[in-house]
Amino acid sequence: MKGIFKFTRWHVLGVRNVLLLIPMSRLQTLKLAVIGATGMVGQEMLRVLANSALANAQIMLVASERNAGRNQDFRGQSMLVKTLADALNWKPDVVLMSAGGDVSREWAPVLAKAGAMVIDNSSTWRMDPQIPLIVPEINGHLIKEGGGIIANPNCSTIQLVMVLYPLHLMYGVRRVVVSTYQSVTGSGMRALNQMEGERLGQNPEQFYPYPIDQNCIPHCDVFESDGYTKEEHKLMNEPQKIMGLEAGIISATAVRVPVMGGHSESVNLRLDKPFEISDIRRILHETPGITLQDQPETLTYPMPLYARGKDDVFVGRIRRDASEPHSLNLWIVSDNLRKGAATNAVQIAERWASAHEAAQVG
Ligand code: 2RA
Question: Which pick of 55, 162, 225, 232 has the fewest CB atoms within 10 Å?
């Protein structure tokens, strides 16, 4: 045993608050495919991966037929982007998938059946009772080794539950009213092209039904028959599955704003037990993955411009609800492409690699 510790290079995995040790040589044999590698989230996954414990795994970049055959940089090397059929033949151990709902519906089960653990960023599998919906800091213990599908939650859900969960453990969450201010990168490249074109005074292709620059559009994703949008339903339903919350205690309004990257959320939170605001601040300050920015006297509060490219969830403007003393108000900001998508998915992959390693050794 002593010898192994002496001669093996170990990699400490980057999942916060959990120390994971895997020999570097074993990480190098792991096969990881990134499906949707040329898309906005896929590109962010590559940036996060390059600085993760999995940076030295064998990596295959994969995209739709339209984008396969291109070259894409990863870890300073130009790599040929392969097709989904190539990925299946390669038999990856783990797959990061961000290629939209249709690809996910068709390919995630096929790859899982072939033995891969597919970490899927679409909404296809999130509310399927058989599929875990994971934020590693909250329910990472549900990540098991072997093949299957794990759903990565919606971006606006992840930043919300990161803040709700530590408060729920201490006080119990009774009701949540959340209004989002969601950036344009949450809608992808075509939406960003629309906003940038409008800013340049061009007449760009319309992704949204209205101009987005100098506007707020109270409409994210499609409308459902109850008058809520699908994005609002994600916010109302996914936290229940991740945190084990009671059903029907979240009400949401999702708004698209002309911000390039970083989602913001105004949250009114009713707790079960009495609380002091100073304790709320302390708990959030001590929670891994959260940065407290809450000093009105120095104009310190979270803003999307400053959250960009960072992995944490930022919280501030914490104050007791002046109309309802059992409730408080908070302002939560996070980079929707990082913790809201790529970072969370890579953290899941790291945890899976650790479980996989434990199974090999054990
Ligand atoms: C958004 N739900 O509209 C998306 C991104 N996952 O921002």
Answer: 225
Beta-bridge partner residues of 182? 256
CATH code where residue 136 lies: 3.40.50.720
The CATH number covering residue 312 comes to 3.30.360.10
330 in the same domain as 352:
no
Ligand 1 mutation target, pool 181, 187, 232, most atoms within 8 A of CB: 187
Q: Which residue has the tokens 């959990």?
A: 18
pLDDT digits (tens, 9 = 90+) for 103-115: 999 999 999 999 9
Q: What digits encode the pLDDT tens for the residues 2-37? A: 333 334 445 555 444 444 567 777 788 899 999 999
Global model pTM greater than 0.90: yes
Mean pLDDT of 356-362: 81
Q: How many domains does the chain have?
A: 2
Range of the domain at 108: 2-153+341-361
pLDDT, tens only, 155-211:
999 999 999 999 999 999 999 999 999 999 999 999 999 999 999 999 999 999 999
Q: Are residues 148 and 206 in the same domain?
A: no
216 is catalytic: no
Answer yes or no: are the C-beta atoms of 151 and 128 closer than 8 Å: yes
Same domain, 245 and 271: yes
Q: What pLDDT sits at residue 11?
A: 52
**Cα separation of 135 and 116, whole Å?**
20
**Protein residue closest via CA to atom 4 of ligand 1:** 186
Please confirm, yes or no, whether 263 is among the known catalytic residues: yes
Asked whether 229 and 275 are in contact (CB, 8 A), the reply is no
